[in-house]
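TASK: fixed-backbone design
INPUT:
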């Protein structure tokens, strides 16, 4: 297949481009500042801004599939002049329109757990509205909603360090928000499978089949999580344990944290605002782990502790089925 990966130079994108190229697909990574540095061998780059239709329409032509991985991080306040609506909703609408105009078959949309047009944060609302645009399109779509994703180049571990300090740290609500972190190395083969069809296949099988994928995952919404559920407090302990540091969590009442974030919202050098506070009120876990739709055993996926080099040591994250 000829696959255009919008946001292909980002964290998940670079890994997905590498996986698709390894499977024998022709891959182009589109972003606003592409360059070839850091892109896997054999992956082409293209310049485009999904918020500007004319800058992407010609690039989409000639592709069999489009993957939308364009992101504005929900973990930090959006930079001045940007918004989740512009990047996640308008960007998706432009990509969908360009794909329909170009006769693209498959469209894979990376969404987020809890995506809801009436949700509590701007990110979740934009993701929910973007899902509706994808679902209502004429394309053969698949939507994937992962929990937080960890791996080299990801921001989840660094974000935890930005939010906290070693030894003694305050956390809104005592850090009880639950996550189900999934390793990027587990996620991207499933994304590639979602594009190709039912089974993960070798490069030779993929090229034998030619440019068409089968439709096993078309019209599906998948919620994907890792093998364990960890609270923000658990993750904080893990992250500092990996550095050989203990941490004691001091709970900050959620209402107080939200009040504080509202008060400092207008300060440009403070990276968090009320939306980031609100997002900590909702768990980021899956009800049923759809990794099984890709033939994966949820308990066999990589844990955050193992990624951080803490395998076999005491830590508080629990297997998802018992948490
Ligand atoms: N990482 C996670 O934990 C996680 C969890 C759940 C869902 N997701 C979803 O997964 C997707 C990928 O996330 P990620 O973590 O890989 O994001 P990322 O590392 O921040 O990468 C974002 C990519 O989008 C590009 N981009 C941003 N704005 C653009 C625009 N206007 N036009 C074209 N390209 C643009 C960036 O390149 P330029 O800046 O050069 O344009 C970059 O290639 C997103 O949809 C995200 O919401 C991620």
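OUTPUT:
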């Amino acid at each position: 297949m000829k696959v255009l990966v919008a946001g292909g130079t980002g964290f998940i994108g670079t890994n997905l481009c590498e996986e698709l190229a390894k499977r024998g697909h022709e891959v182009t990574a589109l972003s606003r500042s592409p360059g070839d540095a850091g892109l896997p061998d054999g992956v082409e780059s293209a310049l485009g801004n999904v918020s500007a239709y004319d800058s992407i329409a010609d690039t989409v032509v000639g592709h069999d599939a489009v993957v939308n991985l364009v992101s504005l991080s929900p973990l930090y306040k959006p930079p001045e002049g940007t918004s989740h609506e512009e990047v996640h909703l308008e960007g998706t609408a432009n990509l969908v329109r360009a794909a329909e105009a170009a006769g693209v078959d498959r469209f894979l949309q990376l969404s987020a757990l809890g995506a809801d047009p009436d949700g509590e944060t701007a990110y979740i609302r934009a993701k929910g509205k973007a899902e509706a645009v994808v679902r209502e399109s004429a394309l053969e779509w698949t939507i994937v909603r992962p929990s937080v994703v960890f791996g080299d180049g990801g921001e989840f571990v660094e974000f935890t360090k930005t939010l906290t300090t070693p030894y003694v740290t305050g956390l809104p609500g005592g850090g009880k928000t639950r996550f189900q972190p999934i390793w990027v190395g587990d996620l991207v083969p499933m994304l590639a499978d979602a594009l190709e069809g039912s089974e993960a296949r070798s490069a030779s099988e993929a090229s034998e089949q030619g440019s068409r994928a089968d439709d096993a995952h078309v019209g599906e919404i998948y919620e994907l999580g890792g093998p364990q559920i960890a609270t923000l407090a658990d993750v904080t302990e893990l992250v500092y344990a990996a550095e050989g540091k203990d941490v004691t969590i001091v709970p900050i009442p959620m209402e107080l944290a939200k009040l504080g974030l509202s008060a400092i919202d207008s300060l440009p050098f403070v990276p968090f605002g009320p939306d980031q506070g609100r997002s900590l009120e909702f768990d980021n876990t899956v009800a049923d782990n759809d990794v099984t739709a890709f033939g994966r055993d949820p308990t066999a996926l990589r844990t955050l502790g193992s990624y951080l080099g803490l395998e076999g040591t005491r830590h508080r994250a629990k297997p998802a089925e018992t948490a």
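COMMENT: Residues 6-7, 9-13, 31-33, 48-51, 69-71, 73, 87, 91, 110, 112, 146, 148-149, 154, 156 surround NAP (CB under 6 Å).
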